[in-house]
Design brief:
- The chain has 209 residues and is of the alpha/beta class.
- It has a single domain (4-206), classed as Rossmann fold.
- The chain is built from six helices and 15 strands.
- Strands 1, 4, 5, 6, 7, 8, 10 and 12 form an eight-stranded mixed sheet that branches.
- Helix 1 runs antiparallel to helix 2 (26-44).
- It is globular, with a radius of gyration of 18 Å.
- The mean pLDDT is 96.
- The chain binds 1-O-pyrophosphono-5-O-phosphono-alpha-D-ribofuranose and uracil (URA).
- Uracil binds at residues 194, 199-201.
Amino acid sequence: MGKVTVTEHPLIQHKLTLIRDVDTASKDFRDLLTEITMLMGYELTRDFPLQDKQIETPMGPMIGKEIAGKKPVIVPVLRAGLGMVDGLLRLIPGARVGHIGLYRDPETLLPVEYYCKLPKDIEDRDIIIVDPMLATGGSLAAAVDFVKQRGAKSVRALCLLGAPEGIETFRAAHPDVDLYLSCIDEKLDDNAYIVPGLGDAGDRIFGTK
Ligand code: PRP
Ligand code: URA
């Protein structure tokens, strides 16, 4: 069974309060999302395997460590997931980036796919799906379906906020996927928005409200 990790570091909680605030402007929202993603990325990458690397320091030879294996693939769920890409790329500059375009139909609340572009060899790489909001869980579950259908074997997901009911739905659909969140919020409202949440993540990142 995949694990659910809630990264409750004080810096993350402090920045979460700022990002949730209705008066936080888009530029600050984007900066905070990048900063929180980097802090969460520290936890997400904790189990990455290492291998030895022979180097020379100015004082002589030593055997250092480096991350082993192929570079992971970061897969943002468009649009809002784009706001988490830079933070992870700063930690893992060699990572590949795939894209999955999904929007939630306002009537049915079901995810609708409109774009998918992934590296060819995803079966050999760790996949990190990023999307700030896990509300009903439908979008994240669909994104994981896409990468699995295209051969992905190792998948983890990074979200800022999750609603309890969405987390349960997602875990039932993909019990093998490790899920990282910075907070589990209270509930969904009648329009399936997370409460207290932060509103519409895509609109807040891109100023489209
Ligand atoms: C938001 C969010 C998730 C989805 C979460 O995207 O970024 O992808 O809703 O909802 P769910 O868990 O109920 O599926 P949205 O559909 O608003 O699209 P956007 O990012 O293009 O604005
Ligand atoms: N999508 C968002 O952007 N916010 C929510 O609270 C739910 C879905």
